[in-house]
Amino acid sequence: MAAAESATALRADAARNRERIVAAATEVFAERGLEASTAEIAARAGVGEATLFRRFPTKDDLITAIIAVQFEQSAELASSCLEEEDPWRGVERFLSGMAERAADDHGMSGAAKERCMASPALADARGRVLDLTSQLVRRAQKAGVMREDVAGQDLMFLMAAVASLGELPFPGLRADLWKRYLGIVLDGLRPDGASKLRPGAPSRKLIEFPEVE
Amino acid sequence: MAAAESATALRADAARNRERIVAAATEVFAERGLEASTAEIAARAGVGEATLFRRFPTKDDLITAIIAVQFEQSAELASSCLEEEDPWRGVERFLSGMAERAADDHGMSGAAKERCMASPALADARGRVLDLTSQLVRRAQKAGVMREDVAGQDLMFLMAAVASLGELPFPGLRADLWKRYLGIVLDGLRPDGASKLRPGAPSRKLIEFPEVE
Questions:
Q1: Which residues of A are less than 8 Å from B123 in CB distance?
Q2: Most A CBs within 10 Å: which of B170, B192, B205, B213, as the mutation test of the A interface?
Q3: CATH number listed for the domain at residues B1-57
Q4: Which of A170, A207, A210 is opposite residue B118, by nearest beta carbon?
Q5: Which single residue of B49, B129, B137, B183 has CA 20 to 30 Å from A147?
């Protein structure tokens, strides 16, 4: 009984450490970019580097854990947007919330993040976000407020395109300029005057399982 | 007379060398990214590394020269689009031509390119492209086929956003998927059903002289 209790305590302790490391890495990467040292992350988390390496043998493991948390947050945002009474307002709030987080997240941009985003370990998480996004799209289409020829996948890519504008090499631009371009994209998603989109929407499979070519 | 002739011949030779180096660097960077070695570029151009360094003391000088050529091509494209009879077709062809080149240009993406794009040496070139883009926008607005609240600067950023979709971490996506999203952006630029864009358009100054903060 005492042994079981202490095993439980150990597990809780390990989970807390893991959470602390992921939170610290999120902050440190945002501030210094993905080149930041694991020593700095361990110090910020208040754990030893050995503990960090035991939980996350490579930096990619750490980045993947951060993206997993972001996917969870995206799924929560999408769920809450599905509860908006106005289906268009739901789409709007989802895209703007996603683009806002991505724009705040510059420090983490780079090849390593892109590699980890497409990781097989995150297939379920990608699928969950896509499911909810597709529900947002279908709900707006049923209500007649969104063009019929777009899919949930399209929203993910459009959001990425808008967020990429936070990385332009013009330092004087206001940080929320992306909102302007999100406005144009949202107008382009309305049903009236829609042109015929070519090529067709990318398949869900390519986003859930990009590693399988 | 003979001395003047040989000086002219020398200048012509130097200009040819410079052009060959810029063309070779464009190819090599596109294939291998901006990390490619100057040795490889010199070999491709058929000149010695000493000649390359005399013309372009730093890699940034070389990248800036490539971007200058791209800005010239953009200005030529904009001029030819201004001659389209249909003003909307002019906008469409300009955005699609710019996004196509940017999407073919992945190898050259990175911090060094962004730094060089904003270089003071390219202020005139940026201004020329912006002038022509603004003419395309005003012509379409006068014809009543484009929303009134956008400026030439907006087209540059929207094009960059669409082109950024060529760098998504999903290897199975078709290379021309950006055309789909350009279609949505173009629909969003139409006058009907336009929402009120916030924030306002970025100033021209920020793009022409980003180095002055």
A1: none
A2: B170
A3: 1.10.10.60
A4: A170
A5: B137
- Residues of B whose CB is below 8 A from A103: none
Tell me if A196 sits within 8 A of B170, measured CB to CB. no
Q: Check CB contact under 8 Å for A165 and B157.
A: yes
pLDDT at A213 exceeding the cut of 50: no
Percent of chain B with pLDDT strictly greater than 70: 89
Tell me if B199 sits within 8 A of A179, measured CB to CB.
Answer: yes
Q: What angle do CA A60, A157, B91 make, to 5 degrees?
A: 135
pLDDT for B194: 60
pLDDT at B158 over 80: yes
Please indicate whether, in this complex, the C-beta atoms of A165 and B161 are within 8 angstroms of each other.
yes
pLDDT tens-place string over residues A25-69: 999 998 888 889 999 999 999 999 999 999 999 999 999 999 999
CB proximity under 8 Å: B 91-120 to A: 114-115, 117-118
Contact A181, A158 (CB under 8 A): no
Q: What is the pLDDT of residues B6-34, one digit of tens each?
A: 888 878 888 899 999 999 999 999 888 88
Question: Number of A:B CB contacts under 8 A?
Answer: 147
Q: What is the CA radius of gyration of chain A?
A: 20
For the record, the structure tokens of A152 come out as 């949930």
On the question of pLDDT at B46 being above 60, the answer is yes
A39 touches chain B (CB under 8 A): no
The two structure tokens encoding residue B156: 């540059």
3-class secondary structure, B164: helix
Choose among A66, A63, A71: nearest CA to A34: A63
Predicted confidence (pLDDT) at residue A6 exceeds the cutoff of 90: no
DSSP class of residue B189 equals T
Q: Where in chain B is the domain with CATH 1.10.357.10?
A: 59-208
Structure tokens given for A5: 């209790």
CATH number of B59-208: 1.10.357.10
Instruction: Give the pLDDT band (50/70/90) at residue B110.
Output: confident
When scoring A100, A109, A147, A180 by the number of chain B Cβ atoms within 10 A, the one with the most, hence best to mutate, is A180
